[in-house]
Amino acid sequence: MALDLVGAYLVTDWHRIVSYTVQIRRAGAVIRVGRVEAATSDARMIWLASEGVDTRVLIEKAEGYEVWLEALPSDDAQFSLLQ
Hints:
The structure is a single chain. The chain has 83 residues and is mainly β. 10% of the residues lie in helices and 40% in strands. It is built from one helix and six strands; from the N terminus they run ββββββα. The protein has one helix spanning 75-82; strands spanning 9-11, 21-26, 29-39, 45-48, 57-60, 65-69. Strands 1-6-2-3-4-5 form a six-stranded antiparallel beta sheet, with no helix packed on it. The longest helix has 8 residues, at 75-82. The protein is globular. 14% of the residues are buried.
């Protein structure tokens, strides 16, 4: 199981995080950490890229998943991603 990210932020606008490494949570538990490969324009679904033994997977907001992003180096960049 992955450790919680220190300084992580909940992201609600999923289409802005393509290519970022994120943490997927559901009911407060960490499900997976991975790189966002694609997102729908309505920000309801993302694809996490396959990595190692983890296959490519579709994550749907409607199923109760949350996306958390590690703190970014720039406060301005972080603000624009999380809006």
